[in-house]
Amino acid sequence: MPLRLPRPHRDDVRIAVGGLFAGLLLIRLGLYSRTPEDPMSVLDPGWAVLVPLVVTAGCELLRRTRPRAALLVGTAALVADTVTRGSLVTVVMFTDLMYAAVLYGTPASARRLPWITGLLTVASALVPLAVWRVPQTLLIGVGVGVVALAPAATGWVVRNHRDAAEAARLRAEQTALLAEMDRAQAVTTERARVARELHDMVANHLSAIAIHSTAALSLDDPATSRQALAVIRENSVAGLAEMRRLIGILRDGGAESDPAAIPTLDGLDALVGSARANGLDVTLDAGYEKVPAPVELAAYRIVQESLTNALKHADPGRVTVRLAQCDGLLDIRVTSPYGDRDGPRAPGSGAGLTGMRERVALLGGTFAAGPDGAWWTVRATLPLTEGDPA
User: Fold this and answer.
1) What is the pLDDT confidence band of residue 290, given thresholds at 50, 70 and 90?
2) Which ranges constitute the DSSP H helices of 61-149?
3) Mean pLDDT for the stretch of residues 14-28
4) 69 and 62 Cβ atoms separated by less than 8 Å
5) What is the C-alpha to C-alpha distance for residues 339 and 319, in angstroms, rounded to an integer?
6) What pLDDT sits at residue 256?
7) 303, 294 in Cβ contact below 8 A?
8) Pairing status of strand 329-337 against strand 318-326
9) Nearest to 378 by CA among 296, 307, 279
10) Cα dist from 128 to 122, 141, 146, 320, whole Å
11) 155, 220, 354, 384: which could join 99 in a potential S-S bond, CB 3.0 to 4.6 Å?
12) Phi, psi (degrees; rounded to nearest 5) at 86
C-alpha cells in the first residue's frame, strides 16, 4: 500500500507558506546571508539557494505530525544552504523545526536533543579555537547555539510547562471524579439512613392499623370494632406525628439539629406500652447505664422493629425484651413465640431485618435473627465505645 502522509495542521501550512514567500522575497531583493566572494558560496546563487529554502518550507508541513523526519531533512537542507549564498529564512525555519522536534516529538527525543545541541555548541566553539588559535572562531559556537541549542532549550521548557499543565488538568479531573463518587456514596448512604428511619418509625403503626382494621372488618361485634377503630386512630395519629418529625429532621439538615426528635432508651416503656395496646403480651427487662447516642438510637430501633415483626408474625404468647450491659457491650435480645402460621397478619416488605443488620454493622456490632426451637430470637450486640464502627 502507498505511504500516506498525515494531513498537516493548518498553522503548519501557514508557517510553511509564509516562510517560502518570505524567502522568495529576500532572494528577489537580492538579500543573502553571504556575498559571492564568500568562500562558502561555491554554487551558483541564481538557483541553488532555492533548493534548501523549498525543502525547509516543505519540512514545516511535517513539524507536528513527523517532527523527527522533518528535523533530519531540515538539517540536510541547512547544510546545503551553507554552500550557497544562503537565505536567512532557511535558517529561521530550521530553528522552528528544532523547536517543534522537542515540543512535539517523542519524550526520548525531547530529552536528547537539548543535550546533543549543547554538545555541538561547545564543540563548535572549542574545536576551531584549538585548531586555528583565533578567538573569532568562538563565534561559530555562538551561531550553532543560536540556531540549534536555543530553540531546543526553548522547546524543552515549553514542553515541560505543557506537560505540567496537562498533569494538573488530569489531577483536577481525577479529584472531581473522586468528589463526585464521594457525593454519590454520601447520597446513597443518606438515602439508606432515611429509609431505615422511615421504615422503623412508621412500620409499627401501619402494621397495627392493618391488623386491627382486619379484625374490625371480620368481626360483627360493635364493641370490638369500636375498640379496633380506637387503636387504629391512635396508631394513625402517632404515625403521622413520626412522619412530621422525620420531615422536620430532613428540612433542618439532620437529626442533630433536633435532639428531642431522637428516640432514646428512656422511651422503651412507652414503646412496650404501645405494643401491649396493639395486642402483644410484652415484658421488658432492661439493665443498662448511660450509653452513647448512636448506640441508644440503634438499640431503640432494633427493639421497635422486633416488636413490629412479632406483631405481624409471632404466634400467641409472651414476647420478651431484654437489654443487658456487660464488658463494654450492650446486648439486646427479643424473643417471640414461633410456629407454623398460615401467613403474616399484616404484609411486610422484608426490609426490617436488613435495616437492623445495617444499623448493627455501622456500629461494629454483631446481629443474628432466626428460629431457636419454639422461639424466634433477635439478638444484637453493640459496642459502647464510640468510634469503633467498622
Assistant:
1) confident
2) 67-81, 88-104, 107-132, 138-144
3) 93
4) yes
5) 14
6) 46
7) no
8) antiparallel
9) 307
10) 10, 9, 17, 105
11) 155
12) 85, 145
Task: Tell me the three cell numbers of residue 18.
Answer: 509564509
Q: Which of helix, strand or coil describes residue 317?
A: coil
Which residue type is seen at 34? R
- Pairing verdict, β 281-287 and 318-326: parallel
Max mean pLDDT among 109-113, 172-176, 295-299 falls in 109-113
Query: What are the extents of the domains in the chain?
Result: 10-174, 263-390
pLDDT above 70: percentage of residues in the chain: 78
What span, in angstroms and rounded, lies between the C-alpha atoms of 63 and 167?
Answer: 24
Which of 2-6, 100-104, 162-166, 266-270 shows the lowest mean pLDDT across its residues?
A: 2-6
Burial class (CB in 10 A: 0-12, 13-18, 19+), 112: middle
CA distances from 44 to 19, 27, 80 (A): 22, 13, 13
Per the CB < 8 A criterion, the answer to whether 351 and 201 are in contact is no
CA–CA dist 80, 77 (Å, integer) = 5
CATH topology for the 263-390 domain = Heat Shock Protein 90 (3.30.565)
pLDDT of residue 249: 62
**DSSP strands (E only) in 31-80:** none
Residue 213 CB-density burial (10 A; 0-12 exposed, 13-18 middle, 19+ buried)? middle
- Reading the block at residue 205, the C-alpha cell is 403503626
The pLDDT of residue 119 is above 80: yes
Please report the sign of the dihedral spanned by the C-alpha atoms of residue 362, residue 363, residue 364, residue 368: negative
Please give the radius of gyration of the chain, using alpha carbons only, rounded to the nearest integer: 44
Q: How far apart are CA 257 and CA 345, in angstroms?
A: 37
End-to-end alpha-carbon separation of the chain, Å? 63
pLDDT in tens, 178-230: 888 888 888 787 777 777 766 666 666 666 676 667 666 666 677 767 777 77
- Cell readout for 218 is 371480620
Q: What is the pLDDT of residues 149-183, one digit of tens each?
A: 999 999 999 999 999 999 999 999 998 888 888 88
Q: Return the ∠ at Cα 231 (arms to 249 and 272), rounded to 5°.
A: 65
The phi, psi pair for 210, rounded to 5°, reads -65, -45
